[in-house]
Amino acid sequence: MVSLRLLLSAVLIGLALAAQPARAAELIMFERAACPWCEAFDREIAPIYPKTASGKLAPLRRVDIYGKLPADLAFVQVERITPVFVLVDQGRELGRIRGYPGEDHFWGLFDAMVERTLGKASDQEKSLRIKG
């Protein structure tokens, strides 16, 4: 009876995990301490980014340019300017934004990059950013 319960529990856990959507895409933010443009991004974009459809599709991951590059990002060319945003999916780079040009320009560049590679941002999502 106990082994049947364990088996049933294992099957249910496996089904629950299989139902979870795979998270493949990420927006990698290469940054460094005391970077004024990184700090501006943190004030203007970082609070709303995870709430957007794009933020759910490609969650933000931060990497210090002076730290050890994570093994799963070995294919990404690290630049010594900050910030640099690199959209990656399944072990390949899809696009990059060098620097932080301010909130309006960032969203324009980001939306163009996402639309070219992952799909179109909705008008509703864009209006949420403005109301943010």
Question: Can you walk me through this structure?
Answer:
The chain has a four-stranded mixed beta sheet with strand order 2-1-3-4, with helices on one face. The chain is built from five helices and four strands. It has one domain (23-131): 3-Layer(aba) Sandwich (Glutaredoxin). The protein is of the alpha+beta class and 132 residues long. The model is unreliable at 2-22 (pLDDT under 50). It starts with a helix and ends with a helix. It has helices at 2-19, 36-44, 53-57, 103-117, 123-131; strands at 26-31, 60-64, 84-89, 92-98. Helices cover 42% and strands 18% of the residues.
Set out the fold topology.
Blueprint: H1 2-19, E1 26-31, H2 36-44, H3 53-57, E2 60-64, E3 84-89, E4 92-98, H4 103-117, H5 123-131
Parallel strand pairs: 1-2
Antiparallel strand pairs: 1-3, 3-4
Which features would summarize this protein structure in a list?
four-stranded mixed beta sheet; 18% strand; single chain; alpha+beta; disordered N terminus
